[in-house]
Amino acid sequence: MRLKIQARAKINWTLDVVGVLPNGYHDLDMLMQSVTLCDQMTIEDAPEKKLFVQSGGTYVPADENNLVLKAAAALEQAAGVVRGAKITLRKYIPVAAGMGGGSSDAAAALVGLNKLWGLGLSEDELEAIGLTVGADVPFCIRGGLQRAQGVGERLTPLALKRPLYLAAFQPCRGLSTKEVFTSLHEDGIRPEDRPDNEGAQAALERGDVVALGRCLGNVLEPVSRRMRPELDRAIRAIEATGACGARMTGSGSAVFGVYRHAGACRRAVQVLSEEYPMCRMMRTAECGVVVEEV
Asked: pTM value?
């Protein structure tokens, strides 16, 4: 059997920190969205597990430090099996960008290997395994539009009224999530930096992009902007193209803008690409992993 898999990126419409959990992790409240930008993965039968990575010049490990192999090992342990597979990963999602690249790859590995190995595990079971690999992996398995709480594992599916169009790019080098959260803890959160989760959720459910733009927010953004001043300029550049809203996603360093319709987004990408060649147009997606048998 040979499987071709799309591992879709994500963006955060909103990201708020509402407290600290008993285990010391931050208690989050977020609106997370799958988008059509994706890494491509193929998985096929092989006597041993082996990962091959094509990343276009960006260093991505192909050893046990890669979340794909960590996910495979976690799946084997949970299912009580030892199996092999040849996994080829082509990276298109920017690295250390807050777009869930590593988590989406881990999610794709769990879904694909579950099928390749005939394990028959449910989505809920895969999400539980995924959580041991990374906090965003359960979302990346389920995908679509979700209200994500806790460390991101408590997911509530939401209905998106219509597809939305985005421009997104990484204007600078990546950021360490741990360093960003450490700085946030030291700095604290200003009330004006908090997103309007309820307003954003309502706007998404009725397809009101203008209202959505007013409600977007990410409490990590001020910290990340201070660490990477290039983020300020990039967000202002997006706003100048007529985006209804522009924000950083995750802990950075990718930024995105959302537009009224596809034509406005396409024109914005043409303008932004003059300064940011890696700018891409994408739209919202209804799922996080797409598997095709070939």
From this structure: 0.96
